[in-house]
Amino acid sequence: MKIIADKQYIFQEGQPFQSSHGSTVAVLPNGRVLVAWFAGQHEKASDVAIWLARQDHSGAWSVPRKVADEQGIAHWNPVLYAQGDSLILFYEVGYEITDWHTRIIRSGDGGYTWTASRELVPGDIGGRGPVRNKPIQLEDGTMLAPASIERLDPEVLGKQIWESFVDISTDHGETWTKSTYVPMDLSTYVGAEHWFAKGLIQPTLWSSGRERVHMLLRSTEGVIFRSNSPDGGRTWCEAYATELPNNNSGIDATRMEHGLLALVYNPVSGYTTESPRTPLVITFSTDNGQTWGDEYVLENEPGEYSYPAIVSQEKDLYVTYTWKRDRIAFWKLTVTHNDEEGPQER
C-alpha cells in the first residue's frame, strides 16, 4: 500500500473561541471540502456554537464563521452530509446530553448560505439522526444515520446506559424511522465499574452491497464493538467485541473504492476517556472489517487527538480531528493498494 499525505490546520491561533471539538468533514462533487465543528469557552458552555470553514482550490481555508448559534444553550456534534451539490448539517442542542435534541439546516449553494434550523424529529429528546458520524446511502437511495442515546440507568443512581440504533430515511432526510436497538448483553459489560456508563454509542456505518450493512461502535469495554444487519439497517445482530483496542473515544470509518475500508481511531486500551487519546491512526481492511492492518499514524505525540471524522472520494481520504482541543487538524491522503478484487462479503 502506498499513501501520499498532506496535513493542515483549519485555522490558526487568535480565533474568537477558546476550545474546539467534534469536527465533521464533507466533500462536494467539485472537490471543495467543508469542515464544521463546535467551539466556545469549553465543551458544554452556553456560548458553544457550530462553526464552519471551506477550502478553496488553492488549498487555503476560509475564516471560520458561525452557521448555528442559539443563544444561551450549548451546541454539540455537527455532522455534514453531501447530497450531490447540496449539503445537510445536523447538530445537537441541549444543556445535558441525556436531554439534547437534533437540529437540521440545509444549503443549496455549497455552504455559503443555510436555511433556518428546524427540529429533525418533532418531540425528540435524547437525539435522533446522526449523533456524531456521517450517514451513508444504500443502493436504493435509503439514507442510514448512525444514532445513539445516553439515558439514565433506572436501577443504578448516577449511572447511564448507552444504546445505539440507526435512523432510516427514504425521503432525502425529511422524515426518519428508528431501527431496532442494537442488542447488547449488558450482564457481561464491566465498563460501569470504571466509568459512569456502560454500553455502546456513536456507531459508524458502511455497506458491503445490497442490504448488507455493518457498524463499528465506541464502547465502555476497552475495545471497539461490531454489529451487522442483513435487512438495510432495520434489525441488528447482538454487538460483539472486536480485537481493536479503544479507550472509549470516538471512531469513524469509510468504505473506499474496491471495498477497501479505512478506520480512524485511538488504538489505546482502557475503559475510560482518562486514558490518553494518543496516538491517532488510520488502519485498513481488505476483508470487510474481519482483519485490519497497514496502520498509518496521524499523531503520536503527547496530547489529545480525538473525535476523528473521515470520508472518501475514489482514492482520496479526508480526515479531521480535535488537535489538543485548540484546533481542528485536516489531512488529505491518497491511497493506492494492490488488492483489485475487493473484500470478501461476510
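(ticket continues) Second input and output from the same batch:
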Amino acid sequence: MPGAVVVVRWSELVEMPVRQAAGVDGRFSLCVPEDAREATLWAEFGDDSSEQAIATFEAGATREVVLRVLSEGMRSGRLLGQVLDALTDDPVRTAAASLRGRPLVVDTNRQGRFVLTGVPAGVHELEVRRIGYAPLRHPITIDRGLTTEVQIRLVPAPLDMEPIVATATRIRRMEIVGFYERKHWGELTGLGHFITAEEIDRWRPSSVSGFVAMMVPGMSGLANRRMSTGFSGQPCPMKQYLDGILLRGGGIDQFVRPFEVGGIEVYKGPASLPAEFAGSDARCGAVVVWTR
C-alpha cells in the first residue's frame, strides 16, 4: 500500500514516535537507535489501520515486520489508553488491556500507554488487569473513523475503591496528520503550544489570529513579540501554515474561520520547530492550523 503511514513508538526511549510513509512498493526502512530494544508499530492509510505489532531488536541484526491494514473503511475506530495508579498517578506498566470477545491483548509500556486498532464501531467492554490491582471492566463506545482516548486509574487490590475512567474522542483527521503525537511530545518537552478543537468550541473566538494571541504568551497577532525585525522593533512575523501548506499571501484569517479549525500548533522559535515546518526563513517560528 504505497503512501501508508507507519507509526513506530519506542518502548524504552523518551523519544518522539516516528511517522514515515511507505514507498511505492509498500516498504519502509528505519535505522533503530542503538539503545532501543523494543517498539510498538502500526500502519495507517486514510481511515484504515493495521493492528499493532511488537518488534524486538538486537544490535547488528535486521528485523522484518509485515503490517496488514484492515480495510474496514469508516466501520472501525481506534482506542488509545493510559493506565495509572489511582493513589500515586504513576504509570502502570505491563498491565494487560483487551476488549471482551476479541482475541487481541496488549500490554502497557513504561508510560502506561496502550493502543488497540481496527476496533469495530459500537459498544465494547474494556478489560484491564495487573497483578496487585483490582481488575477493571468498563463499557467503551468506539466511533467510526475516530480515536477514543481513555485514562484509567487502577486501584491497588487491598483498597476498597472503584476504578476511575475518563474518556475523550479525538478527531480522526488530526490523528492522521500527527497533531496529537506532536502535542504529546511538545508539551512534554516544553517545545510548542497547542490549541485543540474543544478549546476553540468553548471560547468561540471571532478570529484565529486573535485567539492565538490570547492563548499563547508573547504573541502579537501571528507575530512573535519576543523577537523583532531589524532596528524597527516590530514583532517578528511567523510562518503560517494551513493543512501543512505554507501561506505566502495574506493571513490565516482570510482562509479559515475558527469553527472550521480542528487544531493549532504554535512554535515560537526555530529550535522548537518540527522538521516539516523548519527552514532558513523560520527564525520567528511558525503557526500551523489544521481544519477539521
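Agent notes: Residues 177-291 form a domain with the Ferric Hydroxamate Uptake Protein; Chain A, domain 1 fold (CATH 2.170.130.10). The mean pLDDT is 85. Closing as not reproducible unless the customer responds.
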